[in-house]
Amino acid sequence: xxxxxxxxxxxxxxxxxxxxxxxxxxxxxxxxxxxxxxxxxxxxxxxxxxxxxxxxxxxxxxxxxxxxxxxxxxxxxxxxxxxxxxxxxxxxxxxxxxxxxxxxxxxxxxxxxxxxxxxxxxxxxxxxxxxxxxxxxxxxxxxxxxxxxxxxxxxxxxxxxxxxxxxxxxxxxxxxxxxxxxxxxxxxxxxxxxxxxxxxxxxxxxxxxxxxxxxxxxxxxxxxxxxxxxxxxxxxxxxxxxxxxxxxxxxxxxxxxxxxxxxxxxxxxxxxxxxxxxxxxxxxxxxxxxxxxxxxxxxxxxxxxxxxxxxxxxxxxxxxxxxxxxxxxxxxxxxxxxxxxxxxxxxxxxxxxxxxxxxxxxxxxxxxxxxxxxxxxxxxxxxxxxxxxxxxxxxxxx
Length: 398
Known about the structure:
Elements: E1 7-10, H1 17-20, E2 25-27, E3 45-50, E4 56-62, E5 68-74, H2 83-100, E6 105-110, E7 119-124, E8 127-132, H3 135-139, H4 141-152, E9 156-161, H5 165-168, E10 174-179, E11 186-190, E12 193-197, H6 212-216, E13 226-230, H7 238-243, E14 248-253, H8 256-268, E15 275-279, H9 282-291, E16 296-301, H10 313-329, E17 331-341, H11 348-361, E18 366-372, E19 391-397
């Protein structure tokens, strides 16, 4: 749709400053509702975002039902938000990934980081998974799908639209085939190691590409060691540890389906004789392992987001601290703790502090060796620090 035909969305005086400084989000309390009442807009409607003097700031979309009310798609006003627009953006994202990676397994589009807020695309070779989290992108989904097919020519595409953010946008959750015959299982390669997963039923879009670089660091720590992989999912950490020479890997997860895939991945990589699985709640299993006085040389602690909202911060801190303290109790002297968090509401400094607190409580000395964040296929928009969500600590414990 051409800019000239788009309804303006007017901001209050001085509320344009953050947009001018590079941000792309607009909150409902920043909109001049006397001039452009939110009741005039439909969820997902394309708009021209303007400052208080009616000067265009760019084009975006609006959802009058949400606090984070509008997102900027482009600062240009002489373009149409059409198939060519999305082809150009996806092509640019693809060019970056093809320069960075030698195999076609990566996050192809990462929302605001690729100037496509509300849109996630993951590539698994000839297959792609699309996740849409906003009403604006949902309204454009068929154009987006057509653009992806034009650029990449995949065998099949899956809609993985069951993210919790869709509830906030007033959108239904669903998982369905978008194009072609998408298989129940797919194979990917990470750090030259093959894995089987399911994009239909697995977590997120089936895999966590964001930890690729962090998992590559296992080569420095696991050779000849006993490894405990907590919240193991399908074995991204644990299987790589075994392939890299771990003497033994115990993978703990609450999902029987995930552990079944992990066992498949152990067979796929010929390490099934060194990999065991344990189904159950990680907190409960850690308690049992402590009671049994079981110890390990390396422990990987990569839980799901325990602080999903700001109001969960206090309870989440307690949970992270408890997990890390229990893991530290199981480490042999000179062992390594790899502790991660994907909670954007938990800072790196907070994670470091709670790991330190856990070590001090049980009388252990801890050294921070290095830290890790998400990989380059999750590029950060520098004006949006909230996108820097992943943090990983590599620690030595005496």
